[in-house]
């Protein structure tokens, strides 16, 4: 068993993922203090494991450490969210183009399945379900692209931006706009058209940036 100051590799991975998930889902609010003793009790792990997890999440930009005050959930400003989306626009454009080059017949069928599920979610007004499918689609495109470095960059960027993304999904009419943009990306990838896929991905993120700027504070 790990001691108060020791942690196993498995525990470190699990607690890091658990705290990351809690932050991303909004269980921990922006600027909320993250106390090692409380987290240790909440998740049933050693304080050493919590400390290591908070250090890793600080590197990911989800947590920040304030001198003499400990750790807290980092609040991402709207300006930062826009900058993150601008970087995503470039990297996800690359991934979409590469996915169009590498996509297999089986993967095309899978993307079409996601497309149909997204259509249904929007038609039924299931915002949370659509948001989940949105995330799944972006993740699958990155996987198909085979761009491992881009995947790591995007994982961190999307985690930092998730609250703004979800807030955007709640804007009336936004899911319908987003759906059309995602369908264009899927069509281009399934058509094995790299240039069109990159343009569609960049157009989608350009739309996201424009919508973020328009969302009331």
Automatic annotation (TrEMBL):
PANTHER family: GLUCONATE OPERON TRANSCRIPTIONAL REPRESSOR, TRANSCRIPTIONAL REGULATOR, GNTR FAMILY. This is GntR family transcriptional regulator. Keywords: DNA-binding, Transcription, Transcription regulation. The lineage of its organism: Bacteria, Bacillati, Actinomycetota, Actinomycetes, Streptosporangiales. Residues 9-76 form the HTH gntR-type domain. CDD domains: WHTH_GntR (cd07377). It comes from Actinoallomurus acaciae. Signal peptide: none annotated. It comes from the Bacteria. Transmembrane segments: none annotated.
């Amino acid at each position: 068993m790990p001691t108060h100051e020791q942690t196993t590799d498995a525990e470190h991975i699990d607690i890091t993922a658990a705290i990351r998930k809690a932050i991303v889902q909004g269980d921990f609010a922006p600027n909320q203090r993250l106390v090692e003793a409380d987290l240790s009790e909440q998740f049933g792990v050693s304080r050493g494991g919590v400390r290591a997890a908070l250090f890793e999440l600080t590197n990911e930009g989800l947590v920040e450490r304030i001198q003499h005050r400990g750790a807290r959930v980092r609040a991402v400003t709207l300006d930062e969210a826009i900058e993150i989306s601008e970087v995503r626009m470039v990297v996800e454009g690359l991934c979409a183009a590469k996915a169009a080059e590498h996509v297999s017949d089986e993967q095309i069928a899978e993307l079409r399945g996601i497309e149909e599920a997204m259509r249904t979610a929007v038609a039924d007004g299931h915002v949370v379900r659509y948001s989940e499918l949105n995330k799944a689609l972006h993740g699958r495109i990155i996987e198909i692209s085979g761009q491992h470095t881009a995947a790591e960059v995007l994982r961190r960027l999307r985690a930092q931006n998730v609250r703004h993304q979800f807030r955007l999904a709640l804007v009336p009419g936004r899911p319908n706009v987003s759906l059309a943009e995602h369908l264009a990306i899927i069509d281009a990838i399934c058509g094995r058209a790299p240039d069109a896929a990159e343009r569609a991905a960049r157009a989608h993120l350009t739309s996201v940036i424009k919508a973020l700027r328009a969302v009331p504070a």
